[in-house]
Amino acid sequence: IPYGDDPLQKLDIYLPEEGKGPFPVIVNVHGGGFSVCDKHDFHLYPTMFALQQGFAVAAVNYRLSPAVRYPEHYYDLERALLWISRHGAEKSIYTNTIFLWGTSAGGNLVLQAGMKKGLPLPAELQPAKEVRINAVAAMCPGIDLLHYGNTGTLFERLMVRILFHNLHPYVFGTRKVPQEAARQSDPTTYIKDGMVPVYLQQGARDPAVPFDSVKEFHDRLTAILPHEDLVFHVLEGAPHAGADETYFLPENIDPILRFFERHLQK
Which has fewest Cβ within 10 Å: 58, 77, 239, 245? Predict the structure, then answer.
């Protein structure tokens, strides 16, 4: 379904095989360093479990770098959320119960969207901040895009640094990320204005997203969110999402769905 004019500004909607809508919806946002991957690749797999729990799933594509620079990827997510809010009822979606699920770069984007104010939006997208977001789940989310590649073997650290060295010109237009761009792209920048409930899941051996950056983000949130609205789920020994099966195991997916269910009732 198109939510904009660009070929990548599309989303797919999956509905449960049982039950009658409208259904609460989980919006899945893929990762890929803001420059690769797609709405139907492996990032979608964990949310397929949600269909058995009475949730609809909306898988969102967004424009990729180098065609666009950050934060255009985030603006596309807000465009998709605005479309769901306005038209979701036509597709059996209950538009007052929207959950976000993002991985890696997608984790960065859903955290941005979960901020009560957050990164300023263009005038055309201002109504998007009125969309009701019940809760956000972010798997190995990009937080501090200036620091990476400090975990894992020497080979893993080297490969990650080479990868980001090549990605930065695509995403930010320069190999060295400007300080203002780093501040703008860091969800921590906007914490002081409040955030919806958050479930963070992070591998302790992630070579791409430093564990400490996600932990620090969590620790900052403890001063803002009540205990029942914040979870930091550490996956001991786990690498980045997609590098092994950890993020795809039911025992690591079910707690996120239970978190969403509690905030659905709330």
Answer: 245
